[in-house]
Amino acid sequence: MKVIIGNPQVLNSSLEFNITPKVRYLAEELGLGRDGAAKVITRAPNVLGLSIENCIAPKVMYLEEELGLGRAGAVKVIIGRPSVLNMSVEDNIAPKVKFLAEEAGFGCENSPDTNASMLVSVASYSLAGRLVPRVRLLRKHGQAGRFAASGIGQLTNDTFCEKVGITMEENDAEVAACVREHAEKRLGPEGGAGAGGEGEVGGGGAGAGEIDG
Q1: Are residues 71 and 159 in the same domain?
Q2: Bridge partner list, 125
Q3: Which residue among 43, 62, 86 closes a domain?
Q4: Cys-Cys with 80: which of 28, 97, 120, 160 at CB 3.0–4.6 Å?
Q5: How far apart are CA 199 and CA 65, in angstroms?
């Protein structure tokens, strides 16, 4: 029932040519097993509408090869946050991984376990609206490295401000600046669409701020 509510179009899908191949790929080829495949589909019903060749398999390859997670690490990520299969590697996942690994100093490129944990934790958070402004604020207040990668995204704005010792106004100002910079980067010097868009809206008020992109 959760699958139908989450993805009503599944009722129009062919069991033989659409649903069964996806379940078989997840359970057998990816190695999730029947229970693991069911868990992924229940939590992310839209997976049934994705192409194995053009969407799911390339995401798995990115996790295994580009991030160096191997099959076990890729499975850990997919089970931990199945919605990662719906996200764009180029516009969403890769920029976040690069920022956290190279600019935020989490050393993800040298640690597959850190990569998997980090990706599961931050894949649904806005880069410009949450991750970048928080890293900047921590550096500004001499607290760089205080939180693990997961903490950078998961804390609500209220909790983050309280722990860092800043006002919500300062937080919101930094978020606005980062969102503005990101928008300008996407538009480019001629006002056209530039590269690197994440397809997300900023981190917002006091909520958890999870927005899939």
Answers
A1: no
A2: 210
A3: 86
A4: 120
A5: 24
Q: How far apart are CA 76 and CA 169, in angstroms?
A: 37
The residue to which tokens 């997919």 are assigned: 78
Range of the domain at 204: 88-213
**Same structural domain, 171 and 96:** yes
- Give the count of domains, the chain: 2
Q: Provide the residue-wise pLDDT of the chain in tens; the chain has 213 residues.
A: 444 444 455 444 455 657 788 999 999 999 999 899 999 999 988 888 899 999 999 999 998 998 888 898 888 889 888 988 988 888 888 888 888 888 777 755 545 556 666 666 677 889 999 999 999 999 999 998 888 777 788 899 999 999 999 999 999 999 999 999 989 987 765 544 444 444 343 444 333 333 333
Burial of 177 (C-beta count, 10 Å sphere; 0-12/13-18/19+): middle
Residues 200 and 126 in one domain: yes
**Rounded to whole angstroms, how far apart are CA atoms 209 and 207?**
5
Show the tokens assigned to 189.
């010097």
Q: Beta-carbon neighbour count of residue 40 at 10 Å?
A: 24
> Pick from 35, 67, 86: which residue ends a domain?
86
DSSP letter (8 states) at residue 11: G
Same domain, 209 and 121: yes
Quote the CA–CA distance of 132 and 163 in Å, as a whole number: 17
φ/ψ (deg, to 5) at 125: -100, 145
Phi, psi (deg, nearest 5) at residue 210: -90, 120
